[in-house]
Structures are given as structure tokens and as C-alpha cells.
Design brief:
CATH architecture: 3-Layer(aba) Sandwich
Order of helices and strands: HEHEHEHEHEHEEHEHEHHH
Distance between the termini: 27 Å
Oligomer: single chain
Strand content: 15-25%
Number of strands: 9
Largest sheet: 7 strands, parallel
Radius of gyration: 18 Å
Number of helices: 11
Number of domains: 1
Structural class: alpha/beta
Length: about 280
């Protein structure tokens, strides 16, 4: 299927074709709405809920196609590639946003819980990116934005499986950036903290003046995704202050580890519940 996609002639003025996973709600939906206002934008919406995707596509001010898919299915990358080839023929921005978290201590959740996280938050991202990379290269300049988490830089008890998947995603993103730069494919990384979404309203944090700063909105994360993708920024924390926590992890790991055993880091390093499900 890849040769058929690559063989399609590009228009004189190439449109922005952006594919967003986990697009039916939360960060993914906000990103689709934000990108729909870019000049000559075409969107590809991917998530599990077909009805939500149809509704979103119909409401956008830009042309949008959609595909209902569980990205952990073995045939999902091929299906997405085929959809892009049939409806668009090129791809200039891939937003790997779909993800989920199931908090549990390793002693209770064990390897099974780690495997569950890795299957969606890491393996599915790699498999989809592998399938679409030839199209991104042929459409260059293009970009990939991987949505990790602040928990992908600093971990705390009870969320190790989620952090492991997001640490892996962050490390792989750094490597992919170095590898694909020569091909004109930029790789950006976005690391949100707590985000108030439909499934996770974060009411407890928002009600306290001391912790309100730590909660962001899907729209703020969407803006960071656009900055990392179209703006070709290497990395964005949301809110930006979370970058200080990541720096502390490098400069004073002993301090961060000590704090992580208490309650303070529960505010500063979100659990998987803070991130969108694959929707």
C-alpha cells in the first residue's frame, strides 16, 4: 500500500494534512479544533468512538475524514495508512495523542499492568509511526508530535507503569528527532501535567488556590502541540513550570525521590488518570 500512497502527485500548494489520534475527546478533540483553523488544513481524526468522530468532523471549519480504530489492534496501522492514502495522499503532521493510565503499585498490578500501558502508550505509537513514516518523509517538511506526560520525566509511587510507558516515549522521541532531521521530519514532544478533561475534571485541584496553577486545559495542550509541530519546537511542558520539576530530577535526584515518597509530588507529577484515554 505504501507505494500507492507515495505515487500520488502533490498539489502545487500542498495543504496541511494533520492526523490526530485519540481525537474524539479531551486533548485530541481540542487539537483537532485548533488545527482546523490553520490555512488549507485537512484533518484525519482517529479514535475508537465512530459517533463522536462523525460529530466532530461535521462541526469543524476544515475538511475532515475519520476512522474508528483501536490502535492496539494488529491491523490498525495498515488501516490508518490505507485511509490516508485513499482520502489525502500525503501527511504533514502526525499527532500521537491517544493514551491511557491505570494506576496501581507494581506489587499489585505487576507486569500485566506495565504491559497494558506499553501496548497503548508506547507500542501502538511506534507501530503507527512506522507505518506512516514513508508518507511523512515524502510530504516533508513534516512533523510528528508525541504527547508524553510530565510523568514521563518524574515518577511517583502508584503510577510506575504509566511513567514507564511515557519515559519510553520521551526517550524514543529524542532518538527519532536525531534520525529524521535529515529527512525533513521534525519530532516534537509535549509533556502535559494535570489536564481538566471530560473524564478527569480535576475538581479537587481546581478548588485549591495552592494547586490551581498545576491544572491546564485541553486547549492549552493543543496550542503546545501546534507549537511543537508547526512551530517545530523540540519540547513543551504544559504548564511550562513543570519543566522545573524535570530539571530538578536531573540536578537533585535525591531530593525528588525523597519528595516523591510524600504527598507533594502527587500534585507535581500527575498519574495516568490525568491523560486522555484512547477515546
Amino acid at each position: 500500500m505504501i507505494p500507492a500512497v507515495l505515487a500520488r502527485a502533490e498539489p502545487t500548494t500542498a495543504p496541511l494534512v494533520a492526523l490526530i489520534t485519540g481525537a474524539s475527546s479531551g486533548i485530541g478533540e481540542a487539537t483537532a479544533r485548533r488545527l482546523a483553523h490553520e490555512p488549507d488544513a485537512q484533518l484525519v481524526l482517529v479514535a475508537r468512538r465512530d459517533d463522536r468522530l462523525r460529530e466532530l468532523a461535521a462541526s469543524l471549519p476544515a475538511p475532515a475524514t475519520h476512522l474508528a480504530a483501536d490502535l492496539t489492534d494488529p491491523d490498525a496501522p495498515e488501516r490508518v495508512l490505507g485511509h490516508v492514502g485513499e482520502h489525502h495522499g500525503r501527511l504533514t503532521l502526525l499527532v500521537n495523542n491517544a493514551g491511557a493510565g491505570w494506576p496501581a503499585a507494581f506489587g499489585e498490578g505487576g507486569y500485566e499492568n506495565v504491559q497494558r500501558h506499553m501496548a497503548l502508550n508506547f507500542d501502538a505509537v511506534l507501530r503507527l509511526t512506522e507505518a506512516l513514516l514513508p508518507v511523512l518523509r515524502s510530504s516533508a517538511p513534516s512533523a510528528i508530535v508525541n504527547v508524553s506526560s510530565t510523568a514521563g520525566r518524574v515518577a511517583r509511587g502508584g503510577t510506575g507503569a504509566y511513567s514507564a510507558s511515557k519515559f519510553a516515549l520521551a526517550g524514543w522521541s529524542d532518538s527519532l528527532y536525531a534520525e529524521e532531521r535529515a529527512n525533513g521530519v521534525h519530532v516534537g514532544l509535549v509533556l502535559p501535567g494535570f489536564v481538566a478533561t471530560e473524564g478527569f475534571p480535576q475538581r479537587e485541584l481546581l478548588e485549591r488556590a495552592l494547586t490551581r496553577w498545576a491544572v491546564s486545559t485541553p486547549e492549552a495542550v493543543a496550542e503546545a502541540i501546534v507549537d511543537a509541530g508547526l512551530g517545530r519546537r523540540p519540547e513543551r511542558y504544559v504548564p511550562r513550570a513543570y519543566g522545573l520539576l524535570a530539571a530538578a530530577r536531573v540536578l537533585a535526584p535525591w531530593l525528588v525521590r525523597r519528595v516523591s515518597a510524600g504527598r507533594v509530588l502527587s500534585v507535581l507529577a500527575p498519574s495516568g488518570d490525568a491523560h486522555d484515554r484512547s477515546a
